[in-house]
Amino acid sequence: MTPGVEPVIGMQRSDMSEFLPLFPLPTTVLFPNVFLPLHVFEPRYRDMMADALTGDRLIGMVLLREGWQRDYEGRPPVYQIGCSGVITHAEKLADGRYNLVLRGLEVRTPRA
After folding, report:
1. Considering the entire predicted model, what is its pTM?
2. Which of 2, 54, 61, 95 would you label with 48, given CA atoms 20 to 30 Å apart?
3. What's 33's domain CATH number?
4. How many other CB atoms sit within 10 Å of the CB of residue 67?
């Protein structure tokens, strides 16, 4: 765990899955112990958030690499460092979109 960053109350490092669903964005990064508001509108990421909210509420955020547009619907290239986060607040809108607040937990390395 990153020094100086406390885990979410009641959550231990061992509670984190080795594999987290990744939420890649082209211009936004998450840092440990920072709260990040997100508006999730794409269907595949709405499904990801619904799954996370019914589970451990954890996701990983990574920054998309240059050229991500060519394979955005598949597996776009991402940087090899990201941050795990826990969804601390969630509002599901009538049309299925989400307004969320994500709290950064620790720096992680995505695996293929």
Report:
1. 0.76
2. 2
3. 2.30.130.40
4. 10
pLDDT at residue 52 above 60? yes
Mean of the pLDDT values across residues 69-95?
83
Parent domain of 52: 17-108
Tokens, residue 63: 């920054």
User: For 7, which DSSP code?
Assistant: P
The number of folded domains in the chain is 1
7, part of any domain: no
Q: What is the rounded average pLDDT of the residues 55-77?
A: 76
Question: What is the DSSP-derived secondary structure letter of residue 5?
Answer: -
Across 7-43, b (16+ Cβ under 10 Å) vs e yields eeeeeeeeebeeebebbbbeeeebebeeebebebeee
